[in-house]
Specification:
Layout: H1 9-33, E1 41-48, E2 54-61, E3 64-72, E4 76-81, E5 87-92, E6 104-111, E7 116-124, E8 132-137, E9 143-148, E10 153-158, E11 170-173, E12 189-194, E13 200-205, E14 210-215, E15 221-227, E16 234-239, E17 245-250, E18 255-262, E19 267-274, E20 282-285, E21 291-296, E22 299-305, E23 312-314, E24 320-321, E25 328-333, E26 339-344, E27 348-353, E28 360-367, E29 372-379, H2 380-385
């Protein structure tokens, strides 16, 4: 028997139909209850592993999503949009490219006149860099950093003047393992995020139970290492907007931990907080820094963040339940902080956020994209500026 609140496939489809008719009335109602503000508008690029596999491009105005294009792409596990808003990089989670054991990065340019993504190149990762998981752009827009699961490595690729990803210029091959044989037989880098200095990035390693801080100013250079408990399996990372607190999902013991981060020295300090199990599937930080959102055990949960200690406290009456077996791949808070996007095997859902409490409510379907794995957002302001 289906419990109330579970997002079944049938209910997902029903919500999709209903959303098309009620989106405008919901928005007007919400605007009347709060302040009359302009809803976030722009483009959403969604990477899908299901047919049609590729990057689905949507024009977004508030909670109305209109499909404009599906650009063919192979296993688009992670997307990164350049600061200029014109170049999009797609990481392909594959084990072979052009007959070699490696993944690849696809480069796209957004054609302003046509309103379409145009492929401008595809670049191989280093040999043995298979099944990559995450891609990030250096804050200066000059290079790409890739976390490679299968080959246990990090790759650095320059961004060329025409927007294409160049050949790999630096590689760090990681070593280490953990006590859980099936998941930790070797190092398995998962995620990369940049700190406030713009010259360093933090990276999680599920296989070796550690978080590393690297400098990428002159190739790769290890700044510091931080070991997590054996068998925890760090995966997703989120930095507080002020850069003082770091939050990490632990995929194996199914928890989320918080740590103090010193951006001046590039070191991770003592553990500040740890949640109970069942919330390590995905992670998203609110742009205000007041709230953190987690996914796991069939639900989306909201947490308030203590501004002085970084401790997490669950927001009451906020959990959104999903159908058992639903996989959450990524979550993203909209730039205006008013909604949370949840990417699942069923598609993209949207939940509104109470700006005062962080509570989630009014979950609706944003886009029916089967096996939605990754997302990048481009605001209307960026469209106008470029």
């Amino acid at each position: 028997m289906t419990k109330p609140g579970w997002l079944s496939r049938r209910r997902f489809a029903q919500m999709a139909v209903a959303s098309a008719f009620t989106a405008r009335s919901r928005w007007l109602s919400a605007a009347m209850k709060t302040a009359i503000t302009t809803p976030w508008s722009g483009l959403a690029f969604v990477g899908s592993f299901d047919a049609p596999q590729g990057v689905h491009v949507y024009a977004v105005t508030g909670n109305q999503w209109r499909l404009r294009q599906v650009a063919t792409s192979e296993a688009p596990v992670s997307l990164a949009l350049h600061l200029n808003g014109r170049w999009l990089y797609v990481l392909n989670e594959i084990s072979e490219y052009r007959g070699l054991p490696c993944g690849s990065v696809e480069s796209f340019r957004f054609d302003e006149e046509a309103g379409q993504l145009m492929s401008i190149g595809r670049q191989a990762l280093s040999l043995s860099a298979t099944m990559p998981r995450h891609i990030g752009i250096t804050p200066d827009g000059q290079a790409l950093v890739v976390a490679v699961h299968g080959g246990g490595a990090y790759n650095l690729l320059p961004i060329l003047s025409d927007g294409r990803a160049g050949r790999v210029t630096s590689v760090i091959k990681e070593t280490g393992c953990g006590p859980v044989a099936k998941q930790q037989e070797s190092a398995h880098p998962q995620s990369v995020i940049f700190d406030s200095t713009g010259s360093r990035f933090l990276a999680s390693d599920l296989g070796a139970d550690r978080i590393s801080v690297f400098s990428c100013e002159r190739g790769f250079e290890v700044q510091s290492r931080f070991d997590l408990p054996a068998g925890s399996g760090p995966r997703h990372l989120a930095l507080h907007p002020k850069g003082r607190f770091l939050y990490v999902t632990q995929a194996i013991d199914n928890a989320v931990s918080g740590f103090r981060y010193d951006s001046e020295s590039g070191t991770i300090k003592d553990r500040l907080t740890s949640t109970a199990g069942g919330c390590a599937e995905a992670l998203a930080m609110h742009p205000s820094g007041h709230f953190l959102y987690t996914a796991g055990n069939g639900e989306i949960a909201a947490w308030s963040v203590d501004s002085s200690s970084g401790a997490l406290n669950r927001v009451r009456s906020s959990n959104l339940a999903l159908e058992p077996g639903t996989s959450v791949y990524e979550m993203r808070v909209l730039p205006d902080g008013r909604a949370l996007l949840v990417l699942t095997n069923l598609g993209v859902t949207r939940a509104e956020i109470d700006p005062h409490s962080g509570r989630l409510f009014n979950m609706t379907v944003a886009a029916v994209v089967p096996d939605a794995r990754s997302i990048a957002m481009r605001s209307l302001n960026t469209l106008r500026d470029h």
